[in-house]
Amino acid sequence: MTATGLEFAAAGAVRREWRLAEVEALFELPFMDLLFRAQQVHRAFHAPNRVQMSTLLSIKTGGCPEDCAYCPQSIHYDTGVARDDMLPVEAVLDAARKAQAAGATRFCMGGGVPLAQEEGHRAHRRDDPRSRRAGPRDLRHAGHADAGTGA
Q1: What are the Cα distances from residue 20, in Å, to 50, 129, 147?
Q2: CB 110 within 8 Å of CB 72
Q3: Which of 66, 98, 116, 146 shows its CA 20 to 30 Å from the CA of 46?
Q4: Pair 129, 77: CB distance under 8 Å
Q5: DSSP states of the chain as a string?
Q6: CA torsion sign, 68 to 74 to 76 to 79?
Q7: How confident is the model over 19-61, as pLDDT tens digits?
Q8: pLDDT for 53-105, tens place per residue?
Q9: Which carries the bigger pLDDT value, residue 96 or residue 143?
Q10: Who's near 102: CB < 8 A, 6+ residues apart?
C-alpha cells in the first residue's frame, strides 16, 4: 500500500516524496489496478463524478518555427494546415463567453507562434495595437473563472 499513496490520500495529504522502487512498482501494476488506485486517490481530493468541461481555441494556426515532427503547426513540414493570423481579442472573448454558456469551466488558448516571434520585438510594446491579445486576465474579467494558455 505504500507505493500507491493511498494512505496519504486518506489523510487528505498529497505525497511528494517517492523512492525509485515505489515508482517502479506503480509501473509494474496491471493497468486496471493502476487505474483503480488512481481513482481512489482522485476521489480523496475531488468530487467523484464531476468532470471538468474544457474548451480549446486555436487563436493562431500554423507558422510555428519550432521543429516538432509530431505537430501540424510547424513550418518545417507540409501538413496541409493553413496558416491563419492571430484572432482578434473580441473574437477570443466571444468564444470564451460561448464556451462558458455551453458549460465549460476552463478555456484554453493555443497558438502556432506568438505574435512577438512573428513580427519581432516591436510587437511587445504596450502601445503597439498589434500586441494586444486576449489573456487569462481578459477572460476572468469576461466572467471565465479558469483560463489557460498553451502553445
Answers
A1: 32, 51, 35
A2: no
A3: 98
A4: no
A5: -GGGTHHHHHTT-------HHHHHHHHHS-HHHHHHHHHHHHHHHS-TT----EEEEEEE-S-B-S--TT-TTBTTS---PPP-PPPPHHHHHHHHHHHHHTT-SEEEEEESS-HHHHH-GGGGSTT-GGG----HHHHHHTT-S-EEEE-
A6: positive
A7: 999 899 989 999 999 999 889 888 888 888 888 899 999 888 8
A8: 999 998 888 878 888 888 887 888 888 878 888 889 999 999 999 999 999 98
A9: 96
A10: 55
CA dihedral sign of residues 112, 117, 120, 121: positive
Please say if the pLDDT value at position 1 is more than 50. Answer: no
In which residue are the cell numbers 503597439 written?
A: 128
Pull the grid cell for residue 149. Answer: 494558455
The letter for the amino acid at 36 is: F
Amino acid found at 52: Q
